[in-house]
């Protein structure tokens, strides 16, 4: 089982994760991504879904047109773990890439 | 522009939409779909996304593992319109289909 990060380790990890912040009142991290349109937002979600499924670690997320609001936590561990940090990093990488040539 | 349905027309439409109900305090309709796993939930979302994009009418939705919570309203019309009813019907149809042979 993956271990829950201490408050200090979580804060340290968040410093390396642009755009992410703690969730008030809950041991979780959140970021809202904004894209150009629904095509781009859902394209992002699709790429993230493949990563999530492969690593068997899934986000809580809400999509309204061109925005995707994400919350990450590891339920089994009762807090934020390295698995959340890795998924958050993957999301930042995917969101930072614009497709096409 | 598509016209907002009256309260009566909305109630009548909801009777034909298994699983859907009004949102409290807001002119919108909602349904939570539950699937076997994330694969099936996100497969549903992907099929719905194509329908939504084609008709240029998009849901507000939240996915947590195998559940998808949907809210539909037509922002321009300030309420529920025929476009929401059609999208809700399409979602019910897609959710009712299980892939494979």
Summary, kept brief:
Two copies of one chain form a homodimer. By secondary structure, chain A is of the alpha+beta class.
Give a structural overview.
The structure is a homodimer of 101-residue chains. By secondary structure, chain A is α+β, with helices and mostly antiparallel strands. The first copy, chain A, has a single domain (7-96), classed as Gyrase A, domain 2. Chain A has helices spanning 7-15, 38-55, 82-96, and strands spanning 21-22, 29-34, 60-64, 67-72. Chain A has a four-stranded antiparallel β-sheet with strand order 1-2-4-3, covered by helices on one side. In chain A, β1 (21-22) and β2 form a beta hairpin. Chain A binds chain B through residues 38-39, 42, 45-46, 49, 52-53, 58-65, and chain B through 38-39, 42, 45-46, 49, 52-53, 58-65. β3 (60-64) of chain A pairs antiparallel with β3 of chain B, so a sheet runs across the interface. Chains A, B: It catalyses: (4aS,6R)-4a-hydroxy-L-erythro-5,6,7,8-tetrahydrobiopterin = (6R)-L-erythro-6,7-dihydrobiopterin + H2O.
């Amino acid at each position: 089982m993956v271990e829950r990060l201490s408050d200090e380790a979580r804060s340290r990890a968040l410093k390396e994760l642009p755009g992410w912040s703690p969730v008030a009142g809950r041991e979780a991290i959140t970021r809202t991504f904004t894209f150009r349109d629904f095509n781009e937002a859902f394209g992002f979600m699709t790429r993230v879904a493949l990563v999530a499924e492969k690593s068997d670690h899934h986000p809580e997320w809400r999509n309204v047109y061109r925005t995707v609001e994400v919350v990450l936590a590891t339920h089994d561990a009762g807090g934020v773990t390295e698995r959340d940090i890795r998924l958050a990093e993957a999301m930042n990488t995917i969101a930072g890439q614009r497709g096409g040539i």
